């Protein structure tokens, strides 16, 4: 799952777009640069775009839709009621268009699934995506075979879904304990009804859980989500935690739990809200992991989002009091792209790091003791737009509309304004606030500007410089010019100012209300902005370009900021480049859009967590001596990291301090370089003479070769994913490749992440860390003079057969063929395992490795290999001896035929090879034995079940006590049910079966002593095989009988029948030893038919007029023909065979007759003893992979049985009758019981 989530987060980055430069941001403090036609996810320009999307239409006209229904209603005022009781009132102001789409989906979901308005069709979410996990209404029925269990009524206990099972609640689950639904790993649970257990955990979800109905459990956790949980309905539990999320949780419905934390998201959890969270107390979302709000949070207490992890708001957080976003931990990060309304409280309370790209309306906009950034709009009350406490740092690049103080800085905090602040009353700034932006007095008030540096401008409401507040500011008219002198501040309104010189320490400001270029650089050489700021405010419909550059642009610790209202961002360009190169030196930033084409350079950059997108080339280099002097660079080396990166090529050009510098470059998870795999390096450091330390977190985004430089370089690849390019570490003397894969957990299977298959040239050391490793010698290339391959864990070397008498080859063969001196070391040893073309054709194999083995490298083998005779000498090739173990050595002496067959056919089955390679001896033993058990099931169970089916139908005919008189017809219909058990013996598999059937009988009386009858029956057979597996299918019976009473009063019954049983077998996990999860024989069919002849005789003896005893003797002969069995794997077969069963029986019935309601009632009870003899036409043998094998654990059916029965029969004088009977059977191989009920009619 984790890997899938990582892939989904990269979707935007995988779409390479080739147009002109688009949005650009270059913010070295938080790390953002962009020059691409499509914004890179996570970059500043992407964030600004998202804020524009998610705040559109927030002016108050959007309202949630009204619904009326039997249970849930939503009024015009947004009042949501359940059964007439108000749950929540949705704030009907400041709902953006996108949030309205999501919250209207919530209304539709409630109307559809709780009110039963099934005609509704649920639309996509605000981003046009289908609701995650949603279906229109699951229509599943009870099906035990498929492990589907449905509750339609009232359930007074936990409804559980074990692994592989599906549970559905359409009724009500109500009891006095925890866990209304308990959904285990790999289980699935749905609630369409009501869960109201009085304890905790309405749904306890380790697998996948869905709520479409109502969860109102009495204590904490409406949904406890360790797997994946979805709420499309209503969660209204009484205590904390509407959703308690350590996995992944989605809310598209309503969460209105009674106390704290609508969504409680733990460290490894991810929570999404697309609906409404309105818990009664604190923390709409309490986020230790990652939390997203795309809907509405309007909880009653403090903190719409309480963030110790990472929290995102795209929707609406509406707070009557308290904080909108509370970044409560120094390690927490909060992002607002949407709307935060906290009119009596704080929009963002920031103790960690907080960003606003959207709209905040609060008495305090941002309250900062950590680091806070505003790129959006803050509308603050009488308190402060940004309030910076001791050690806090605040930056404003957006707009602050302040009724009171715009920015307050008390104590030892740090505050900067690069944007626009509008002040109504009181001071503009309190304390030390450095102003490089624009201050606008919206009234006659001219409040104080604090004690900080003021290099910006102060304007009145007409955008005119305020007298006495702008010392040293130079106002430029259309004919004005920039002198080029250092440390000057300039201002212009609706003019284009041309200039041709570099600027140092200058501040350029502008207000644009038309469609203009504010500043136009027309010099013949590059423009260098050194320690300078360019700020423009596009307002009153203004659009255009802040800075137009007809050449290269070099930013040295400089800022360019194009400020405008959110809805106007598309119309404003920060910088327009005409084919030039943008070079970033030190800490520089561009906020806004760039147009044009060009490349990007970083020079001596120490910036962290950068984001860059460019349709061109990115160069990272150090400064030349001339640049170091010109730009006053004292630390001339690179230490840079990128969160997001998209470029055609990355050039690493470090050529200044050859032996001193180690230049560090880290490429994060969201990186795309190049368009397709080519032989041309897309990361090119070949010109570098300084050391390079390059780290790539995810190499799947590198679409081309990687070449480093001429010194000792280190390449670290954090995640070993597939990569087809060439890695060339070039001409150093100690070039190193470090590679790792993630923790495998408890189970190891070969996959992409733990297989090394890279092409690595000119390397001295390769270090593989992270548990078990494999080498793919069909792709791997390693070149170098002397190479050490070091594995921290265990190296699995696959062994493959070359043919009978030809020995073996391994997955390490040829890996070091282009290395003069190649040594392999493994901290946990080298394990030789079965390859995909290995079959044990010889008893042992000996060979020498093509590589030296490191000191203390242990040689191991798969469970069937003995490698103890192998020898390892340090700094010498290994002498490997692999002996294939005998069956006895593995405790499989009785199963030697199966074992020998399996190991000679390993190439036929991937799962079998994995079992041998990665299971221990006990698990492997169990799997081999399991094969015999499964065969036994086909052999013994096949004919035993057929015998049970036959006996059920025969017994029904023989127990029917009435007889047709001369010229009479007697019609009879019966329903039969047999619960039968077969223990199977000490070794073989038994079963527990349910056999049902419906029988029709028609009998005609030839005379007073003789009648004839015909029988037809049809039913189902379901057999659970002991230890795992099922036999399911149909049964059919056709028969005839004759009844005759002799002159001596002996009642004879002759019976003949034909039975057909068609069964399909599915074998599941046999977990008696070690939890084996694989079967060599996975399925097959066990079809059979039988012909049965029986004769019974009984003689009634009267005890009184209404009481009699009926002794009985009988015999039964059954010939069962079992069809050939063949599994779908095509590796298993049992030939057709015949089984004969001869049975003798004796017993007696006691019968009591009554005259009742114009009819006759007979009560009957009795016992019967049977002796059986079974003979088989063939020995128990089967074919596996073409080899014939004798069955080890065949068991016959019981050779004796005792039964007892009780029943009644009633026949009215009009000929209508009713009968019922219950029979219990004891045998030495298992106990069974049968029940039957029927109606008859005599005419």
What does this structure look like?
There is one protein chain. With 1243 residues, the chain is mainly beta. The protein is 8% helix and 47% strand. The strands form 8 sheets. It has a 27-stranded parallel sheet that branches. The chain has a 23-stranded mixed sheet that branches. A hairpin with a 2-residue loop joins β3 (79-82) and β4. The radius of gyration is 41 Å and the shape is flat.
Form type: flat
Radius of gyration: 41 Å
Q: Helix amount, in percent?
A: under 10%
Structural class by SSE content: mainly beta
Q: What kind of sheet is the major sheet?
A: 27 strands, parallel
Poorly predicted segments = 1-36, 1069-1077
The fraction of residues in strands falls at over 45%
What's this, in brief?
This protein is mainly β and 1243 residues long. 8% of the residues lie in helices and 47% in strands.
């Amino acid at each position: 799952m984790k890997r899938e989530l990582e892939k989904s987060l990269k979707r935007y980055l995988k779409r390479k777009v080739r147009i002109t430069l688009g949005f650009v941001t270059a913010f070295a403090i938080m790390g953002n640069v962009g020059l691409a036609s499509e914004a890179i996810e996570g970059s500043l320009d992407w964030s600004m775009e998202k804020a524009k999307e998610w705040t559109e239409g927030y002016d108050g006209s959007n309202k949630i839709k009204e619904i009326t229904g039997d249970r849930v209603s939503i009024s015009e005022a947004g009042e949501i009621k359940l059964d007439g009781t108000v749950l929540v009132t949705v704030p009907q102001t400041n709902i953006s268009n996108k949030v309205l789409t999501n919250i209207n989906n919530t209304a539709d979901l409630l109307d559809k699934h709780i009110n039963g308005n099934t005609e509704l069709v649920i639309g996509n979410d605000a981003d046009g995506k289908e609701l995650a996990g949603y279906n229109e209404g699951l229509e599943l029925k009870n099906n035990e075979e498929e492990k589907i269990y449905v509750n339609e009524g009232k359930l007074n206990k936990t409804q559980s879904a074990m692994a592989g099972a599906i549970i559905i609640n359409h009724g009500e689950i109500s009891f006095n304990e925890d866990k209304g639904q308990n959904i285990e790993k790999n289980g699935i649970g749905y609630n369409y009804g009501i869960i109201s257990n009085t304890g905790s955990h309405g749904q306890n979800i380790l697998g996948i859980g869905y709520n479409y109905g109502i969860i109102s459990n009495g204590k904490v956790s409406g949904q406890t989500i360790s797997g994946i949980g979805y709420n499309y309905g209503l969660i209204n539990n009484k205590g904390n935690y509407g959703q308690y999320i350590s996995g992944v949780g989605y809310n598209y419905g309503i969460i209105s739990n009674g106390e704290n934390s609508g969504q409680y998201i733990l460290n490894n959890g991810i929570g999404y809200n697309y609906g409404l969270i309105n818990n009664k107390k604190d923390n709409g979302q309490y986020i230790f992991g990652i939390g997203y709000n795309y809907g509405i949070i309007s909880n009653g207490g403090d903190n719409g989002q309480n963030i110790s992890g990472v929290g995102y708001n795209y929707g609406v957080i509406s707070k009557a009091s308290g904080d909108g976003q509370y970044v409560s931990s120094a390690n927490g990060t909060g992002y607002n792209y949407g709307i935060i309304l906290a009119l009596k409280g704080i929009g963002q309370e920031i103790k960690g790091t907080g960003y606003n790209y959207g709209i905040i309306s609060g008495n305090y906009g941002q309250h900062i003791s950590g680091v806070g950034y505003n790129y959006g709009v803050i509308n603050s009350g009488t308190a402060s737009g940004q309030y910076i406490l001791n050690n806090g740092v605040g930056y404003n690049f957006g707009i602050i509309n302040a009724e009171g103080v715009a920015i307050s800085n008390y104590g030892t905090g740090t505050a900067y304004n690069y944007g626009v602040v509008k002040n109504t009353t009181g001071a503009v700034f309190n304390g030390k606030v450095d102003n490089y932006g624009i201050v606008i007095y919206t009234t006659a008030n001219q409040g104080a500007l604090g004690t900080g540096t003021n290099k910006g401008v102060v304007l009145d409401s007409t955008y005119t410089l305020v007298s006495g507040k702008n010392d040293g500011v130079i106002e430029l008219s259309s004919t004005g010019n920039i002198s080029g002198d250092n440390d000057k501040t300039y201002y212009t309104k609706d003019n284009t100012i041309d200039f041709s010189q570099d600027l140092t320490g200058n501040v350029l400001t502008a207000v644009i209300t038309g469609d203009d270029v504010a500043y136009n650089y027309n010099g013949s050489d590059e423009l260098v902005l050194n320690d300078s700021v360019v700020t423009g405010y596009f307002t009153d419909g203004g659009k255009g370009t802040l800075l137009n550059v007809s050449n290269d642009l070099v930013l040295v610790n400089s800022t360019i900021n194009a400020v405008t209202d959110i809805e106007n961002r598309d119309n404003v360009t920060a910088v327009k480049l005409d084919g030039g190169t943008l070079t970033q030196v030190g800490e520089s930033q561009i906020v806004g859009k760039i147009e044009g084409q060009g490349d990007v350079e970083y020079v001596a950059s120490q910036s962290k967590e950068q984001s860059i997108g460019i349709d061109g080339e990115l160069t990272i280099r150090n400064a030349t001596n001339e640049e170091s002097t010109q730009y006053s660079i004292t630390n001339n080396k690179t230490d840079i990291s990128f969160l997001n990166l998209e470029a055609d090529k990355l050039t690493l050009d470090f050529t200044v301090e050859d032996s001193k510098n180690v230049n560090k470059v880290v490429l994060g998870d969201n990186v795309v370089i190049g368009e397709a795999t080519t032989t041309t390096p897309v990361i090119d450091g070949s010109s570098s003479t300084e050391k390079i330390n390059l780290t790539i977190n995810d190499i799947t985004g590198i679409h081309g070769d990687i070449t480093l430089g001429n010194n000792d370089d280190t390449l670290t690849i954090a995640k070993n994913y597939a990569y087809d390019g060439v890695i060339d570490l070039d001409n150093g003397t100690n070039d190193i490749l470090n590679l790792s894969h993630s923790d495998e957990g408890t189970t190891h299977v070969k996959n992409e992440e733990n297989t090394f298959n890279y092409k690595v040239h000119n390397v001295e050391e390769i270090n593989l860390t992270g548990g078990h490793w494999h080498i793919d010698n069909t792709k791997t290339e390693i070149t170098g003079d002397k190479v050490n391959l070091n594995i921290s864990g265990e190296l699995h070397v696959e062994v493959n057969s070359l043919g009978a008498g030809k020995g073996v080859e391994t997955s390490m063969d040829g890996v070091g063929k282009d290395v003069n001196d190649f040594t392999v070391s493994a901290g946990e040893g080298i394990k030789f395992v079965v390859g995909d073309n290995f079959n044990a054709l010889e008893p042992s194999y000996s060979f020498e490795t093509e590589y030296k083995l490191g000191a203390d490298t242990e040689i191991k083998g798969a469970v069937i290999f003995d490698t103890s005779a192998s020898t390892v000498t340090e700094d010498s090739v290994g002498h490997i001896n692999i002996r294939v173990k005998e069956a006895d050595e593995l405790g499989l002496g009785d199963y030697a035929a199966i074992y020998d067959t399996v190991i000679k056919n390993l190439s036929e089955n991937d799962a079998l090879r994995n079992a041998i390679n990665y299971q221990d001896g006990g698990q492997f033993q169990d799997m081999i034995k399991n094969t015999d058990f499964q065969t036994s099931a086909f052999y013994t169970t096949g004919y035993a079940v057929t015998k049970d089916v036959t006996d059920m139908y025969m017994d029904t005919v023989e127990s029917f006590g009435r007889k047709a008189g001369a010229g009479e017809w007697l019609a009879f219909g019966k329903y039969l049910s047999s619960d039968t058990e077969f223990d199977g013996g000490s070794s073989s598999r038994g079963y527990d079966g349910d056999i049902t059937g419906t029988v029709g009988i028609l009998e005609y009386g030839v005379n007073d002593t003789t009648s004839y009858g015909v029988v037809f029956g049809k039913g189902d057979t379901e057999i659970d095989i002991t230890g795992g597996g099922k036999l399911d299918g149909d049964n059919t019976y056709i028969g005839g009988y004759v009844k005759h009473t002799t002159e001596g009063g002996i009642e004879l019954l002759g019976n003949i029948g034909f039975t057909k049983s068609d069964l399909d077998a599915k074998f599941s996990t046999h977990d008696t030893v070690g939890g084996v999860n694989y079967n060599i024989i996975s399925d097959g069919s066990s079809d059979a038919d039988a012909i049965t002849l029986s004769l019974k005789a009984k003689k009634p003896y009267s005890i009184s007029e209404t009481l009699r005893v009926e002794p009985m003797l009988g015999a039964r002969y059954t010939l069962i023909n079992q069809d050939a069995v063949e599994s779908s794997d095509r590796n298993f077969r049992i030939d057709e065979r015949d089984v004969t069963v001869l049975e003798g029986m004796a017993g007696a019935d006691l019968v009591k007759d009554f005259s009742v309601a114009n009819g006759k009632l007979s009560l009957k009870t009795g016992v019967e003893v049977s002796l059986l003899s079974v003979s088989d036409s063939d020995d128990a043998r089967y074919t596996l992979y073409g080899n014939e094998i004798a069955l080890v654990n065949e068991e016959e059916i019981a050779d004796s049985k005792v039964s007892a029965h009780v029943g009644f029969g009633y026949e009215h004088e009009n000929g209508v009758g009713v009968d019922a009977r219950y029979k219990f059977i004891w045998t030495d191989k298992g106990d069974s019981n049968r029940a039957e009920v029927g109606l008859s009619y005599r005419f």
